[in-house]
Amino acid sequence: MSDYLEEQEIKSLKKKILYSFLIFLIPFIIYLYSLLPCVGYGDSAEFQILSHTFGVAHCTGYPIYILLGKIFTFIPIYNIAYRVNLMSAFFAAMTIMILYNTFLYLKISFLSSVIASLSFAFCYAFWAEAIWAEVYTLNAFFLSLIIFILCKYNKDQKPVLLYLISLCCGLSFGNHVGTMVFIIPFICSYILYLNISKKSWNLKVFLKAFVIFLSCIALEALCIYWWHKGNYPIDYFAYIESMPIRYQLQDINFSSFYQKYLWLIMGKEGGTKMFSLPLVQIFKNLILFLFSFIKYFSIVGVFLGILGVLTNMKRMPKLFFLLCSMFLSLTGFYINYSEFRIQVFFIPMYVIFSFWLAWGTDKLLEYKWFNKYKEKKYFTLIIAISILFFIIFPQYILTGYLEKYPPVDNKGKILHLTTSPNPLKFRNNQEAYNYGKKILKRVEKDSIVFASWSALNILKYFKYVEKIREDIVIYHDWREDILDIIKNNINQRNIYFTEYIKAVPTTRSKLLNNYRLIKIKNLNLVKIQLF
């Protein structure tokens, strides 16, 4: 009898492993199919460069992302940019697998777990970040993993689980500080409550967990320090020091690395954008945020999510409090942030919403009408496919409509526009790659190029990663010493702007008054010459 039970357990374990692998593999293959094949624009290109060369990224540094990206650059396929893009797809698929297993651990049915995890996998907002180099899928991975371990800790309260939570929080802090700042207090409160309620308080265990968290922070600070002192090709500290007026650095001791590091991880660059909106704008952002759930999960998904909130509240009130507090704190911050971008900033809330979607689906499938027919052949499969269809498919119709006809206010200002790439159109997209190559073909040897943020990182990718046109010097076009650089080099080198009109406003008029601007035909490129 015992042998039979053991054999059954082995079969059950094999089945769980197989299903977990499939839940990972299905979205991963689709992400791979739609993956950006080369260098991207802006921040994406920056991460592709830094994963290969190292260096200090823009606020908030993202050292863990860069270190993991470096590992992916060793995969011997295609180009460096593709390998870093691949990391986003990998951690996106890992997130789906973790969510699926967490749902099962919470006693949610297999069918509901599959529906909820795949609904999130093909949510436009998440899929759009899984196809190029960005930090948001890794952020979702850490968040889902932390919640999974917290669920296990709620049951077992083993010290090793607490250490794993601390490790994940510390590592996640080095990927996306913003999310962790707003959820760590609630994670700590939840852990303390569990230990106090079960009278399992152990000061040594908590101190060890805290040391693990601090060790991660120290490692991340050490990486930033190493990259800053190592004269790597991209150093954000050098970038901001060239623009002291714009970043209001006069009152900061930027000779101290400690001050620089605090400035970086606290996101001081965008400090004035936090908690700065008028009440009317906050309300508008809240409406757009709530509407985004209909946009990305459809009416069916929202209904199931609301049903899931009520179910979660009854079945697991402690976990409900944790999820709800994290959800509300993150929402409260981002709707009051002046760079309001639904698609990327609200992915952590969509992760949390997927739990309620799973509970809601499970509750729906418990009703009598389902139990009456579920024994019929293919009925369960048809129901699952139908729910998935009505959650996933409508968002792509609605998103396409909003891209063509975005909502505007009475002054014609766009209230919301998709900011991430369309995952259905990004396969084989080489727009950024071709744009950079065209610029490099037109600029002469030993030229100086002042580039906008998007073009800047594309050109640096070619120079520092693919070793193409290493002779040119590339500067950001928001530098406040542009006129000095031009004056000192105009007689020896050719000087270009990729988008001269975006130069520093205080410098633009002097630039136009002192130099002749020659627009390069069929390319957004301007050559600077003396009159």
Describe this structure in words.
The chain is mostly helical. Helix content is about 65%, strand content about 5%. The protein is built from 22 helices and seven strands. The chain has helices at about 1-35, 40-55, 65-70, 80-105, 110-120, 125, 135-155, 160-175, 175-195, 205-230, 235-240, 255-265, 280-315, 315-335, 340-345, 345-365, 370-375, 380-405, 430-440, 455-465, 480-490, 505-515, and strands spanning about 55, 235, 450, 475, 495, 515-520, 525-530. Strands 4-3-5-7-6 form a five-stranded mixed beta sheet. Strand 3, helix 20 and strand 4 form a beta-alpha-beta unit. The chain is globular and about 85 Å long.
Sequence-ordered SSE layout with sheet pairings:
Blueprint: H1 2-33, H2 42-53, E1 55-56, H3 63-72, H4 80-105, H5 110-121, H6 124-127, H7 136-156, H8 159-173, H9 177-197, H10 203-229, E2 234-235, H11 236-241, H12 257-265, H13 279-315, H14 317-334, H15 342-345, H16 347-365, H17 368-373, H18 379-404, H19 431-442, E3 448-451, H20 453-465, E4 473-476, H21 482-489, E5 495-497, H22 505-514, E6 515-519, E7 526-530
Parallel strand pairs: 1-2, 3-4, 3-5
Antiparallel strand pairs: 5-7, 6-7
Q: Roughly how much helix do the residues carry, as a percent range?
A: 55-70%
Number of helices: 22
Please give the largest β-sheet: 5 strands, mixed
Which parts are unreliable, with pLDDT below 50 for 5 consecutive residues or more? none
Strand content: under 5%
**How is the quaternary structure best described?**
single chain
Provide the succession of SSEs. Answer: HHEHHHHHHHHEHHHHHHHHHEHEHEHEE
Strand order of the largest sheet: 4-3-5-7-6
